[in-house]
Design brief:
Blueprint lengths: L19 H9 L8 E5 L9 H8 L5 H9 L4 E2 L2 E2 L11 E5 L1 H19 L6 E5 L3 E6 L17 H4 L1 H5 L3 E2 L8 E7 L2 H12 L6 E9 L6 E5 L2 E2 L8 E2 L8 E9 L3 E8 L6 H8 L16 E3 L8 E3 L4 E9 L6 E5 L4 H13 L22 E3 L1
Parallel strand pairs: 8-17
Antiparallel strand pairs: 1-4, 2-3, 2-4, 5-6, 6-8, 7-8, 9-14, 9-17, 10-13, 11-12, 13-14, 15-16, 17-18, 18-19
Helix pairs in contact: 2-3, 3-4
Length: about 375
């Protein structure tokens, strides 16, 4: 028995308008999406809608606030141009957008990272001072200055404001999450000369780092000689045999654990991210390294079940600096003690292997000091 039509409803199948049919064909013929992105045409029924409303309706699994945050990153494009949240869409507009679930997660991680960056950091400690040279121990999490992409409340320059006003300026840099020795020079001419010495391939300056890496390098002592290209804006440095600058890093395994090692690392040249890239190329990246190794925080379980160690940054510490005095040329050697987070990780690893060097799992004698390191003429 034939079904009776619903009152007020046309029983005939809906017919596509002349405008809808091409729009649907255009959606099917949209250019292929690049890796990690999606493309689609705006159908006629959504013409006139704001972009943020359109995305919120088509991706109901994400909140309107999450969609807005992704739009503000500038990664959503309409007809090849970066789109505004309130932009009005037209039928047939080509949308080019990231996989939204991945974009939402990345925004969430960036916001969490920013909150951590705004958290209080350890105090900056003075290691050496005279009229021309100031050397400090920079804590992890504190950028040396406000560079591209840095929106942090404080920098090393802010903390040392009085010294900067007195004329001291940075002679070199450390990454935000790298702790340890940083040198500042007062006179502009002397500072320029010191900066050139840091950058020279045959530099008279000696630098020594402590690194905690994944796995145990073999051989236990060696070098990585790979040319490096500097990173582009907020990008990654990379090995490039044809165009890279000569770069040399020496390393030595100081302590070996089951699946990690403590290294002494000496960068002979001074390229950006040199140690991080070379260790990754060696097959033993830092225990935590969002750019060149594992992105997740490094968790080291406490065998005593008291408290686990969670590394929130790259475990790289500038432990020793030997520098000719900017004015006299006298050899100045400065050391910065290993910070607490790295000491704790290392000691849990020792406990796990039954070779902690102090009762109760405290730091070994050569790491126990929390006072300033020595700054001595040599």
């Amino acid at each position: 028995m034939p079904r009776k039509p619903t009152p007020g409803r046309d029983p005939r199948p809906a017919r596509r308008t002349r405008e809808e049919a091409p729009a649907r064909r255009e959606a099917a013929d949209a250019p292929a999406a690049t890796a990690g992105r999606r493309q689609a045409r705006v159908p006629v029924r959504d013409a006139g809608k704001r972009l943020d409303k359109f995305l919120a309706e088509h991706f109901p699994q994400h909140s309107r606030k999450q969609v807005m945050r992704v739009l503000r990153t500038g990664t959503v494009r309409v007809n090849g141009r970066a789109a505004r949240p309130g932009q009005e869409l037209a039928a047939g507009d080509l949308l080019d957008l990231p996989v939204l679930s991945e974009a939402v997660r990345e925004v969430r991680e960036e916001r969490a990272h920013a909150r951590e960056a705004l958290a209080p950091v350890e105090a900056v400690r003075e290691l050496y001072r005279d009229e021309d040279l100031l050397v400090v121990d920079k804590p992890a999490g504190l950028p040396v200055h406000g560079g591209a992409g840095e929106m942090h409340a404080r920098t090393l320059i802010d903390v040392l404001r009085e010294d900067v006003l007195a004329g001291f300026g940075l002679a070199h840099r450390l990454d935000k999450d790298t702790s340890g020795v940083v040198a500042l020079v007062r006179d502009p001419e002397l500072r320029a000369r010191t900066m050139a010495a840091f950058a020279a391939d045959d530099s008279p300056i000696e630098k020594e780092y402590v690194a905690i890496v994944r796995g145990v390098p073999e051989p236990r002592e060696g070098e990585v000689d790979l040319p490096l290209l500097p990173p582009a804006f907020r990008g990654k440095a990379r090995v490039d045999a044809a165009r890279g600058k000569p770069s040399l890093t020496r390393y030595r395994v100081v302590e070996a654990f089951v699946d990690a090692a403590r290294l002494e690392v000496v960068p002979v040249t001074g390229r950006t991210h040199q140690i991080r890239v070379h260790l990754a190329a060696l097959g033993h990246p830092l225990l935590v390294d969002p750019l060149y190794g594992p992105r997740s925080r490094g968790t080291v379980e406490d065998p005593r079940h008291i408290v686990d160690a969670r590394l929130r940054r790259t475990p790289l510490h500038a432990a020793r600096l030997v520098i000719p005095h900017p004015r006299t040329g006298q050899r100045i050697e400065v050391r910065a003690p290993l910070p607490k987070d790295m000491k704790f990780v290392l000691e849990l690893m020792r406990i796990a292997q039954g070779r902690a060097r102090k009762a109760g799992g405290g730091p070994p004698d050569d790491e126990a000091g929390d006072g300033p390191g020595a700054g001595e003429p040599g």
